[in-house]
Amino acid sequence: MEAALIIFALMVLFAFLGLGAYATVKVVKATKRGVDRTITQARRTVEDTTLRAKSFGQVGVAGALAQLRLDLRTSMRSTQQALHDGVRVDASLRESITLFERLSAHGHELDDELKRLEQDPDRKRIADSLPDLRERTAKITQASDSLRWAARDRARRFAEDELSTLSAQIEVESDALRDWSRESVDHLAAAAAEWDAVQARAQASGSAQGHAQGGAQGQTPGQSSGRSSAAGGWGAEQQQPALNPAAPAPQYPWQKTRRPESTT
Question: For bias kind Low complexity, which ranges apply (predicted)?
């Protein structure tokens, strides 16, 4: 018995240790993801700030490359955010996200190329390739902007349709609420009329029963008085005196007056 209890206690202990280890791993992974996300956002912020400073502070090839990278990154990031936010409420945007991922591959390739050209010392060759770089950047940003604005237009159209439907429902409900007072008065009037009819029927029925009971009672007193007289006078009516009352008994001389008995 003691060995079984020890084994059970060890199993419970190992279970708690396993759950603790699992929870620790989950917390560590979540913390690592949060740290990585923070580092990525900080790096992007620094790069964007640097590119913006280069585009405004430098002229020539360096400034043009920085502006192309800034335009490309801004457009792609905005479209990515819009699509991922929209797919939460509209599942049909998943296909758009697939197309954007294919477009992102070309965008990353162009951004890497522009980044390498920033370190290239041959400025003349870079200047000659700027028209082609601008055209490629324009194609990618236009495609990205098209996806982003299409997703926003779709979301706005759905919101407008929902608002129109909601407004129509509210108008119907408002009309129903305005008719509530008249409907209530009609219901109350109908209920009052029905109550009056019920009371009138009850009174008519009570009167009919009263007449019937009165006729029955008109025959009952005569019979009951006869019975009460014969029974000894417990009824409400008193026994009528006889028309010829009996004469008193005669007194004879030999009948002596009876003396009252002494109490001594």
Answer: 201-211, 218-246
